[in-house]
Amino acid sequence: MDSKEHGAVRPCLQLTVQLMSTYKRINSVYYKSLREKQAEKTMVSKDPTDGLTKHVDTSKKVDKIMAGHYVPAENEVLHGRYRITGKKLGMGTFGQVLEAYDETSSQGVAVKIIKNHSHFSVQAQTEIKILQYMHTSTHGDRCHIVRMVDHFTHKGHECLVFPLCSYNLYELLRSSQFKGVGLKLIRKFAKQIVESLEFLASINVIHCDLKPENIVIARPNRSNIKIIDFGSSCLSDKRVHTYIQSRFYRAPEILLGMKYTTAIDMWSVGCILVELHTGSPLFAGQDLPDQLRKIVQVLGMVPGHVVEQANPSVRCEYFAREQQHPGCTPTRNYTLRKKCPANDAPMSLESICTLGGRRLNKEPDHSSDDYAQFVDLVTRMLEIEYVCDVAYLFIFE
C-alpha cells in the first residue's frame, strides 16, 4: 500500500532530509560559541611596570591551578614576610621555585612552593626533616649544603625558603655555549662536591638527584658551590623509592633495580664532572635500554655477578646469557639483548675526558698529568662494582 495516499510519515526520510545543512548549522553555532569562550579567557589588563596594556591569558592560570601549582597574586606576601617578585627561578614535577624579598631581613630569597597534592606534600615533609637533620650536625654549614632558612604552609602548599644563590652549573655550561669549562675550575668544584658527599655519607643521607641543575654557585664570580634540592633524598636505611635520579646521571644500581647506597651519588658526580669539561652529557640515553647501551659502550659490559643481582624482570628483559661453545666451562657472562648500533663504536673514558686531546697543553692546567689525574678520578667515580662509599682517595687537587 502506498503510504503517501494515507498521509503516513516516513521517519527515515524525515531524519535525512537536508542532513548536510543541519550539520553545517551545528558546526557554525559550535565554533562561534568556542570563539566567544576563547575571547572571554583572554582579558586586557594594565601592566603597572610599563604602563602599557597587554593580554593576559587566564586559561594558563587555570591550567596551573588544576595541575596543583600555586599561582600567587601580584606582590603577594607569603607568611607575613616574603613578598613574591614575580621572577620564576625554576619549575619541576614537585612545584616551582619563585624569587621573593624577605621584608624582615631585607634580603632576596628563593621560595620553593610545592604542589598541593598529597604525594608531593608528604615528600616535602621528608625534605624538610632531612634538611633540618643535616644542619643540626656540627659540619652542616661548612659542607656546601644549602641551608633552609624557613618553612611554612600557605593555602595548602608546603613552602620552603632558601638563600638566593647565583646560577647553577647547567647555566654555567650554557654560558660557555656548551664548550665546557677548564680543569682548574672543575678541580675547585670537584673538591667541594666530594666534601659534601663525604658529609652526606657520614650522616647516611643519599641525595638521589645530583645533576648540574642541582649544584649552584653561591655568589656571582666565585667558585663556591652549594648542593640544592633534597626533594628526592632519603636516609640510607630508609630507602623509599626504587626508581630515582635523572636518567643521564642514573647509577647502574638504579637502572638494574638493585639495592642502592650513597655510592649512587658518586656516580652522578662522575657524570657531571665529565659533562662540565666536554659540554655534553656523558651518557645521554633516550630510555632505559639506551642508557645501558651508552654505559656499556664506554665502560664495558656489566659484570655477570652484578647482572645476577638485578631485578629479575630487568635482567630478563635487557640481558641475555652469553652463548657457550660446546665443551667449554659455563660462565656467568651476559650480553645486552639490544646491541649497540654498528656505527656506535666503543669509546674510552680517557678519550672522552680529554676531548680527543684537542685541549691537551693548549692552556694552563691542561697538561698530560692534569688530564691523567682527572681521568683517574672520574674512573673511580664511575666504577660499576663500586666498593668505596665516597672518593676518600681524592687526588685531583
Automatic annotation (TrEMBL):
Keywords, in A-Z order: ATP-binding, Kinase, Nucleotide-binding, Serine/threonine-protein kinase, Transferase
Protein name (record): CMGC/DYRK/DYRK1 protein kinase, variant 2
Residues where ATP binds: K112
Record has Membrane as a keyword: no
InterPro entries in the cross-refs: Kinase-like_dom_sf (IPR011009), Prot_kinase_dom (IPR000719), Protein_kinase_ATP_BS (IPR017441), Ser/Thr_kinase_AS (IPR008271), Ser_Thr_dual-spec_kinase (IPR050494)
UniProt-recorded Gene Ontology molecular function terms: ATP binding; protein serine/threonine kinase activity
Recorded family membership: Belongs to the protein kinase superfamily.
Residues in Protein kinase domain copies: 83-397
